[in-house]
């Protein structure tokens, strides 16, 4: 009996140890599986974010090129190349990226360039995207739009100092997607006998950057005409060019 009890106790103890071992293995596998699942979710999230960010960079870069004289079709060409590149990535599955450039209202092939004489200028690009990520047992679908818009508005005034000599003041406001933005470069021109001239120190040129997307420029020049036309050309921090003209009002 004693041996049987000992054998039975040893067998029971062995069963318990095996059960505990199996339980610990199951818990380990569960925790590892959970960690892998979270890692995959994070990887999916990071991957989708990277594609969306890349799409935005392509739109911004295309608009910068087009605003400096490139063809409107460059946006669609660049997006085609980007979609093809994304489609060749297989780290987490098969990517399918499609896009449509906006072609309504002010947009043509996804581009809106309007540099008017009414004191406002717009350089914009707009495209809609659909992204699919196909993995074993997983399918992720997302739609998103990228709207990049650089807007410039200017207001000009002048006063006669004496004869044809006039002091001209111009205030310019720059926006990115409707939010005040900083300019990388701003150049002011004034029209004198059909010649566009950049004022300099000889014109007592003054420039104030208020640090919030608002810029004040002032100069003195001999301008025979009573129609004082000025033009502001701006490159924002993204290298997007926008221009606006306005006829100043006398004060």
Overall pLDDT score:
85
Fraction of residues in β-strands: 35-45%
Uncertain runs with pLDDT below 50, 5 residues or more? 1-39
Q: Supply the number of helical segments.
A: 2
- When the domains are counted, the total is 2
Major sheet details = 9 strands, mixed
Gyration radius (Cα, Å) is 32 Å
Helix content: 25-40%
User: Which series of helices and strands comes N to C?
Assistant: HHEEEEEEEEEEEEE
Q: What structural category do the secondary elements indicate? A: alpha+beta
In whole angstroms, the N-to-C terminal distance is 118 Å
The tally of beta strands, per DSSP, is 13
* Overall outline: elongated
Topology:
Layout: H1 2-67, H2 74-87, E1 94-101, E2 111-115, E3 120-135, E4 138-162, E5 165-176, E6 179-180, E7 183-192, E8 195-197, E9 206-209, E10 214-222, E11 229-236, E12 241-247, E13 249-250
Parallel strand pairs: 4-13
Antiparallel strand pairs: 1-3, 2-3, 3-4, 4-5, 5-6, 5-10, 7-8, 7-11, 9-10, 11-12
Describe what this molecule looks like in 3D:
The chain is α+β, with helices and mostly antiparallel strands and 251 residues long. The chain has two domains: 117 residues; 100 residues, Macroglobulin (MG2) domain (Immunoglobulin-like), CATH 2.60.40. 32% of the residues lie in helices and 44% in strands. The chain has two helices and 13 strands; from the N terminus they run ααβββββββββββββ. The strands form two sheets. Strands 1, 2, 3, 4, 5, 6, 9, 10 and 13 form a nine-stranded mixed sheet that branches. Strands 8-7-11-12 form a four-stranded antiparallel sheet, with no helix packed on it. A hairpin with a 2-residue loop joins strand 5 and strand 6. The longest helix has 66 residues. The protein is elongated, with a radius of gyration of 32 Å.
């Amino acid at each position: 009996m004693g041996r049987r009890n000992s054998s039975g106790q040893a067998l029971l103890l062995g069963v318990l140890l095996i059960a505990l071992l199996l339980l610990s293995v199951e818990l380990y596998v569960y925790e590892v599986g959970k960690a892998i699942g979270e890692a995959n979710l994070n990887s999916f999230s990071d991957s989708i974010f990277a594609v969306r960010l890349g799409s935005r960079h392509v739109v911004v870069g295309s608009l910068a090129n087009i605003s400096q004289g490139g063809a409107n079709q460059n946006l669609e060409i660049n997006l085609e190349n980007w979609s093809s590149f994304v489609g060749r990535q297989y780290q987490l599955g098969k990517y399918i990226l499609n896009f449509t450039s906006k072609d309504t209202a002010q947009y043509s092939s996804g581009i809106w360039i309007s540099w008017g004489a009414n004191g406002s200028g717009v350089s914009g690009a707009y495209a809609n995207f659909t992204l699919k990520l196909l993995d074993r047992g997983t399918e992720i679908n997302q739609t998103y739009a990228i709207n990049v818009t650089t807007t410039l508005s200017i207001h000009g005034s002048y006063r006669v100092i004496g004869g044809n000599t006039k002091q001209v003041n111009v205030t310019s406001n720059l926006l990115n997607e409707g939010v005040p933005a900083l300019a990388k470069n701003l150049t002011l021109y004034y029209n004198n006998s059909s010649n566009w001239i950049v004022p300099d120190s000889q014109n007592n040129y003054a420039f104030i950057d208020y640090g919030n997307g608002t810029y004040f420029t002032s100069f003195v020049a001999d301008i025979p005409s009573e129609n004082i036309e000025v033009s502001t050309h701006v490159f924002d921090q993204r290298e997007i060019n926008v221009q606006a003209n306005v006829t100043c009002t006398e004060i």
